[in-house]
Amino acid sequence: MEYRSLGRSGLKVSTITIGTMTFGGGSKIGGTSEAEAARQVDLCIDSGVNLLDTADIYSGGASEEIVGRLLAEGDRRRKLLVSTKLGLRDGDGPNDIGTSRLRIVTQAEQSLRRLRIEAIDLYQVHAWDGQTPIDETMEALDRLVTSGKVRYVGSSNFSGWHLSKALRTSERAGGVPLISQQIHYSLQARDAEHELVPISLDAGLGMLIWSPLAGGLLSGKYSRDARPATGRHVGGFPEPPVRDWDKLYAIVDVLRTVAAETGHEPSQIALAWLLGRRGVTSVIIGGRTQAHFEQNLAAADIRLEETHILALDRVSAQPLPYPYWHQINSVAERLGPSDVVPPK
After folding, report:
1. Would the pTM of this model clear 0.90, i.e. be above it?
2. Is 222 annotated as catalytic?
3. Under CATH, what is the fold of the domain 3-334?
4. DSSP character for 4?
């Protein structure tokens, strides 16, 4: 297992992260029992994985509770860093959503209780809150770190300008900065290359990737002729959206070709491609079964040949939006290493 620095921090994390959204979940995301979750976590630890990711809203808090019980057994806590998130709605009240000081402190305390740990290693803002001053949000996160309840802070699902605003705010106030962002990025959706990858490279942010297999769409199970009987999209879960099914199937065709030529599975090729992209620190994997986890874990050791990378790059390429097409056309010679899209 390879370990990479998470942004400009001294924290080293494995290139594979354990995803726990299915722990205790329902049919739409594929529920994972506590016994199966324990097997998956131990399998990942044995493979060298040292980061586990959850969130306060996963399965209504049940995911954190399951993780907490698992961490209380044996030496799992010593071997695992724990990241969780806050910011999405978890109740009917007007303050049951967002990143106000009240909610950040309250949710952190509840997550610590469910997780049965003294400090959250990485606390991530799950979504942008445009109705709370960013100064309030960053100050509350800073206080959690200085109080010892949180060790590092990050964001998730921010836009480029949201990240820039948060980074500028913490720098101006002398508070703890964001060290990472957790984002959606895959062969099926390379939107992150327009803003989020460049700002990560420029600001020194780590990138944790959620849904690197596009909710199973890049697993090889989906084709033009048939779809599997089970899976996130079959169950009605809306993310990630698919805007061009023909292009998706074209990507899957190339994945299958590369998989056949290399002796690997399509899902492993998709993960290996992503781990080779500039700025990517770790990909978050989940799975309904131990076999899925074993298959995905093996992707950490795959190194693709340049011809295969280029084939995947071409079939998954997206048209550049403005102003990037204008920059490429007019001032390409003046672009810096973080400006070129996609990053090379």
Report:
1. yes
2. no
3. TIM Barrel (3.20.20)
4. E
